Amino acid sequence: MASLEALHGPLGRASTRLADLVDDAISQYEEAQLKAYEAAAVEVLAFVRPRTNRFAKHGADFEDRAFLGEVIEQRLAAVTAQCESRLCQTVRDELNAPAQELGIDFDSLDRRIQGVVTPTMARFAGFQDGVLAGEALRRFFEEDLPHAELAKEPLAEALATGRVHPRERLRPALRDVVMGLADALEQERLEAMVEVQREAERLRDRVYEPLRALKEVLEELAD
Predict the structure, then answer these.
(1) What's the maximum distance between 2 C-alpha atoms anywhere in the chain?
(2) pLDDT band at 56 (very low <50, low <70, confident <90, very high)
(3) What are the tens digits of pLDDT across the range 88-127?
């Protein structure tokens, strides 16, 4: 019981730290996301510069558009996977000690973390892919590229205008599910304390009460 009571403080502090871990993960995601668009801009230069003398009003060939879309999707998928892996690791490090106190082993905790982080990241990635395939690439090729300066920085900036901002769309969802893990552990702590109390009451009824009654009988016989 004492160890369960002592977990209240650490779990409360863990909830606050988990929010900070999500913010750190989002900052890293944003930085890597922008680097992905810079890499995509390099690819644009590779297929546009050799053909500037016949560059059409609406941008590059269909194959170039498809290729660039695939490049961006792959790089953003790698960014998402890296963010997910790092976040799961830091959350495990934060929650492992209190989870162990509650009898939750490392593998079970890992499954819980991945069970909430992975779907959240997947939903964001799916939305991001949809925006890219729908409007973002079309606007870049038809509106931005024909008039853009053929240099990495301006092209990357033009590509990034169509990005989905993780701070706006991913951060709130990740905060909810990650901080919810600490809330779930706190609920399990409370339930465990109730069960300990119930077991103490059952022990009293099964053992101590019969012993007390026996003591009274023996005292009467002795008198």
Answers:
(1) 119
(2) very low
(3) 999 999 998 888 888 889 999 999 999 999 999 999 999 9
* Residue 116 phi, psi dihedral angles, 5° rounding: -110, -35
Cβ 140 vs Cβ 156: under 8 Å:
no
Measured distance CA(140)–CA(137) in Å, rounded: 5
The pTM (predicted TM-score) of the whole model is 0.78
Tokens 């660039």 correspond to 68
CA–CA gap between residue 72 and residue 38 (Å, rounded): 10
Top-confidence residue, 75 or 186: 75
Nearest-angstrom CA–CA distance, 109 and 100: 9
In whole angstroms, give the CA distance from residue 159 to residue 168.
Answer: 18
Q: Which of 164, 168, 103 is nearest to 135 (CA)?
A: 164
3 state DSSP class of 56: strand
Could you give the number of structural domains in the chain? 1
Span 147-151, average pLDDT? 85
Residue-range definition of the domain harbouring residue 47:
2-222
Q: Which long-range contacts (CB under 8 A, 24 or more apart) does 44-49 make?
A: 44/68, 44/145, 44/155, 44/159, 45/150, 45/151, 45/152, 45/155, 48/145, 48/150, 49/150
Q: What is the tally of helices (H) and strands (E) in the chain?
A: 9, 0
